[in-house]
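Thread: Newbie trying to understand structure tokens

Hi all, I'm a second-year student working on a class project, and my supervisor (Dr. K.) asked me to get a predicted structure for one chain before our next meeting. I've only ever worked with sequences, so writing a 3D structure as a token string is new to me. If someone could post the tokens and maybe explain what I'm looking at, I'd be very grateful. Here's the chain:
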Amino acid sequence: MAEEEKEEQQQEEQEAKKGKGSILKWIIVAVAVVILGAGGFAGWYYYTSGSDAGQDEEVVQTPGIWSLGSMVVNLMDDNGERYLKTTIQIEVSSQECVEELTQLKPKVMDSILVLLSSKNYKEIAGFEGKQGLRDEIAVRLNRYLARGEVRRVYFTEFLIQ
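---
Reply by user tm_fold:
Sure, no problem. This is what the structure looks like when written as tokens:
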């Protein structure tokens, strides 16, 4: 019987230790929740107070996009058997620039048609060729503009047949 009493005492001691361990776990969880909550509140407060300060500053104007539309041209290959169909979008520095390009659309279209029809398949087939063509179009368009500049040229359609 003495052995049974010793075993019962050991079991009671182990249960007491387990009880203390579970309480300690709950205390750690509660402290972690409080710390995370305080950090979240501090972050929210910093974010909302920082966004109000920037409202007095000047708003940067976003650039405009001007659509040149679709074009079909014969390429300078053997007997003009190849053609290029492309749709071009132009990113400009301001909305005023879009209005200026709209007024100059006949000149711009003519200039780009002449440029495209002077190319052959090998010059525009690869990535480097398309990138070079983008740069040439931007340079030509910037010659016409007085109130802004062309930032990027996008081909939304590019088909060589």
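A couple of things are worth pointing out once you decode it. The beta strands are 64-74, 83-92, 150-160. The first strand starts at residue 64 and ends at 74. Feel free to ask follow-ups in this thread.
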